[in-house]
Please model this.
Amino acid sequence: MAKGLDAQARQGYALIAPPFLYALLILAAPLLTILTYSFLTDGYLEVVRDFTWANYAQVWTDPIVRTVMLRSLVVSALVTLVTVLLAFPVAYYVSFMVRPEKKATWLFLITIPFWTSYLIRVFLWKVILGYNGVINSSLTGLGIIDEPLTFILYNVNSIVITLAHAYAPFAILPIFVALEKIDRSLLEAGRDLGESRAMTFWRVTLPLAMPGVLAAVLIVFIPTIGDYVTPELIGGGKIPMIANLIQVQMLALDNRPLGSALAVTAMAIVALVSIVFLLINRRFLKVRS
Model:
């Protein structure tokens, strides 16, 4: 029996070894390279292999870096909040209101934005929000405004709108999956006990859907804080986020150690925020249960 288990274990290890090594090569190697560079010294057009903490000291003491990092966190939090608040009603409608045979069609329609490039979608929002874009042209044509609006592009609001639209399907799908797993008899039991639909939603549906909401929050928050394209195009380069600052250090200034320190710091902050949110959510679920 033991020999049989050992053989099965060897077969299992042999089965997972190729994808594990592939993941190690693709994911761990670049991260270790960036981490190593962050402790080296920048020279003229080269990296000096002298260990130093100066890069991290500059990251944490430079007011420009602190401002950009804080802006990245705030923008990402706003995008996450807007996306999840807009995604939940859509997921709820598809799960509870749409007939079962039509749910696949609705999910198909929700994934249509994935058919086009992310870059194209960002450019489309630039066309929509631009000085002579769709919104300004429509308002001017209807006589609502005399001059095109200038505050709807190249600011934080336009960045939030663009990112919220781009990541909406990523938020809708996990919330929908969580809602689909809810036993409908629990909702009926709540209403049979005299609870209103609003209280049933608050005390039963929402707590049971929190795993999907949590997944949506993390799926949206983690990539948006490192988004480079949207701040560059929709923000016009006037509202840089941490990814734009990393790009400047890595390419424009050829300061790979400092750029690597910025990247590692950003990843550490995202990881810390994600862990804190997970702990808060776990406590919330315990209280609700």
About this structure: The chain has one domain: 64-288. The radius of gyration is 24 Å.
